[in-house]
Design goal:
Largest sheet: 8 strands, antiparallel
Oligomer: single chain
Number of strands: 8
Order of helices and strands: HEEHEEEEEHE
Distance between the termini: 39 Å
Shape: globular
Structural class: alpha+beta
Mean pLDDT: 91
Length: 179
Amino acid sequence: MRGLTAALVALFALVGLAGKAFALDPENTIYLDLKDGRVVIELLPEIAPEHVNRIKELSREGFYDGLLFHRVLPGFMAQTGDPTATGMGGSFKDDLRAEFTNKESFTRGAVGMARSSSPNSANSQFFIVFDDASFLDGQYTLFGRVVEGMDYVDNITPGEPPSNPDKIVKMQVAADANQ
């Protein structure tokens, strides 16, 4: 009996150490493939349901595939999602109303929606923060968190715009992915 108990304790410890990836809901997980590897983003529909729906909808349409990271500021964030790569473009869908929260904070790996000066202008552009950016709390919609591959985000070429920008190789909802 002690052997079985020890084995169960070891199994639970191993699963706990394996990280959140095992517990992720594939319907609320994004695979963001970059030149260096895959970034896994856990979506947060409980705090930003409309933004999560938009990201999934655009991902399923292939909208993000091939788009450039047009604004990458070391120590702050990497931004993409603009088909014009100018920071002024978006999808042809309506803008979204802000879904601010006090349940999550813009810490390393947080994924938020970019917008213009109007809080209700998010459309398709999003950013991933490199370090603490809690000063964005209550001003931008946070809709996800990087749970794997943040080292690949750290490798995105910096610049505003970068002279040789990185791009999204492929972005997909995990539930739709072949691998």
